[in-house]
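Q&A log
Question type: sequence-to-structure
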Amino acid sequence: MKVIINGEEREFDRELTIKELVEKLGIKAPNYAVAVGMEVIPKSEYDSYKIKDGDKVEIVTFVGGG
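Response status: OK
Response body:
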């Protein structure tokens, strides 16, 4: 399965939930947002929303500072 993540093509052996994808990518930020296509996915769906072949995913992490 091929997925575009933040503009970079990645390949996985099966469909993944958003939670699984974030874990595989090693994202440790406590606050992040995920959009698939042009739709922002609610955090409540991260455990169940499946990323499919050909999806375009944007993952944005939030950094505090001042």
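Response note: The helical segments are 18-25.
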